[in-house]
């Protein structure tokens, strides 16, 4: 067994791991039934799924040509931005759906920032307007 | 005199270093030209953006920060397996999703941001909101029979370390 075979095996393994976690993430989005749990599946899949595939890319480039590390940048940017988009989805959800009674009280301050709005701007409980059909 | 000049040129030495590394990674190669141009960018960008950093965070302690990054990376791998198992093998009706309020000892905004990001990336938890004055985090847990255990683990494992690193 040469080194090349070992590396090819490793690359294949990491790609398959990445694919499995991405698949589980997408499946979770379908299977879970309420908005907040649904948010959990893709945030996890995004990190390890993409991360494993990028590791495969790094390994492959080091084995075949001079090597390449800019995959690390993709990972870094993904790790910085993924929580922020998840945070925004959660905030919209709190803003539109949850009445203050469902959430635990903040232990130290008065109110959660998303709920810190004047009553007439509070959207929770509002009917979401029906999307108007195609023009 | 020399140190004064150094501080004028590099108001934020860690940012300079980070920009040089990011530039080399973007070019995807290491040559003298790349490093020099990276250094030019790393000098100009911190000076131009200095106005947007009114109170710069104290430089984090690098060794502890490296330890923290490794712990979080390991937890992300574990988190993925745990969440995948929950998604695949647990019926929706058996899950115990809940909201957890976490009082914060951290005060610096950068540290709180990193804590919130860490919480979202790790085991079955997503950070959803902060309190109006920034002294508590609202976290949603995917499957937590015991919300207090979630709170204690986050405080013990991540917040304590971040406090050592940043404050």
Automatic annotation (TrEMBL), chain A:
<dbReference type="GO" id="GO:0015385">
    <property type="term" value="F:sodium:proton antiporter activity"/>
</dbReference>
<dbReference type="InterPro" id="IPR005133">
    <property type="entry name" value="PhaG_MnhG_YufB"/>
</dbReference>
<feature type="transmembrane region" description="Helical">
    <location>
        <begin position="69"/>
        <end position="90"/>
    </location>
</feature>
<dbReference type="Pfam" id="PF03334">
    <property type="entry name" value="PhaG_MnhG_YufB"/>
</dbReference>
<feature type="region of interest" description="Disordered">
    <location>
        <begin position="99"/>
        <end position="135"/>
    </location>
</feature>
<feature type="transmembrane region" description="Helical">
    <location>
        <begin position="42"/>
        <end position="63"/>
    </location>
</feature>
<keyword id="KW-0812">Transmembrane</keyword>
<feature type="transmembrane region" description="Helical">
    <location>
        <begin position="6"/>
        <end position="30"/>
    </location>
</feature>
<keyword id="KW-1133">Transmembrane helix</keyword>
<protein>
    <submittedName>
        <fullName>Na+/H+ antiporter subunit G</fullName>
    </submittedName>
</protein>
<keyword id="KW-0472">Membrane</keyword>
From TrEMBL, chain B:
<comment type="similarity">
    <text>Belongs to the CPA3 antiporters (TC 2.A.63) subunit E family.</text>
</comment>
<dbReference type="GO" id="GO:0005886">
    <property type="term" value="C:plasma membrane"/>
</dbReference>
<dbReference type="GO" id="GO:0008324">
    <property type="term" value="F:monoatomic cation transmembrane transporter activity"/>
</dbReference>
<dbReference type="Pfam" id="PF01899">
    <property type="entry name" value="MNHE"/>
</dbReference>
<feature type="transmembrane region" description="Helical">
    <location>
        <begin position="65"/>
        <end position="89"/>
    </location>
</feature>
<keyword id="KW-1133">Transmembrane helix</keyword>
<feature type="transmembrane region" description="Helical">
    <location>
        <begin position="36"/>
        <end position="53"/>
    </location>
</feature>
<keyword id="KW-1003">Cell membrane</keyword>
<feature type="transmembrane region" description="Helical">
    <location>
        <begin position="12"/>
        <end position="30"/>
    </location>
</feature>
<dbReference type="InterPro" id="IPR002758">
    <property type="entry name" value="Cation_antiport_E"/>
</dbReference>
<keyword id="KW-0812">Transmembrane</keyword>
<protein>
    <submittedName>
        <fullName>Na+/H+ antiporter subunit E</fullName>
    </submittedName>
</protein>
<keyword id="KW-0472">Membrane</keyword>
């Amino acid at each position: 067994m040469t080194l090349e075979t070992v590396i090819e095996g490793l690359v294949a393994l990491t790609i398959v791991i990445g694919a499995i976690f991405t698949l589980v993430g997408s499946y979770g989005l379908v299977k879970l039934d309420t908005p907040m749990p649904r948010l959990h599946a893709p945030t996890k899949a995004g990190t390890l799924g993409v991360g494993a595939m990028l590791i495969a890319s790094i390994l492959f480039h080091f084995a075949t040509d001079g090597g390449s590390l800019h995959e690390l940048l993709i990972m870094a940017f993904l790790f910085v931005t993924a929580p922020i988009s998840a945070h925004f989805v959660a905030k919209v959800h709190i803003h539109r759906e949850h009445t203050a009674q469902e959430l635990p009280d903040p232990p130290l301050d008065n109110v959660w920032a998303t709920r810190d709005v004047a009553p007439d701007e509070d959207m929770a409980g509002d009917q979401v307007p029906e999307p108007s059909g195609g023009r | 005199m020399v140190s004064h000049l150094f501080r004028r040129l590099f108001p934020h030495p860690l940012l300079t270093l980070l920009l040089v590394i990011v530039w080399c990674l973007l070019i995807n190669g290491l040559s003298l030209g790349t490093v020099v141009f990276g250094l030019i960018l790393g000098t100009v960008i911190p000076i131009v953006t200095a106005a947007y950093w009114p109170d710069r965070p104290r430089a984090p302690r690098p060794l502890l920060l490296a330890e923290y990054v490794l712990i979080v990376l390991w937890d992300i791998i574990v988190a993925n397996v745990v969440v995948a198992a929950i998604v695949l093998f647990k019926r929706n009706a058996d899950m115990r999703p809940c909201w957890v309020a976490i009082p914060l000892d951290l005060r610096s905004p950068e540290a709180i941001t990193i804590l919130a990001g860490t919480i979202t990336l790790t085991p079955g938890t997503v950070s959803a909101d902060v309190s109006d004055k920034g002294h508590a985090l609202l976290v949603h847990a995917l499957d937590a029979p015991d919300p207090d255990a979630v709170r204690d683990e986050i405080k013990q494992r991540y917040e304590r370390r971040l406090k050592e690193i940043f404050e």
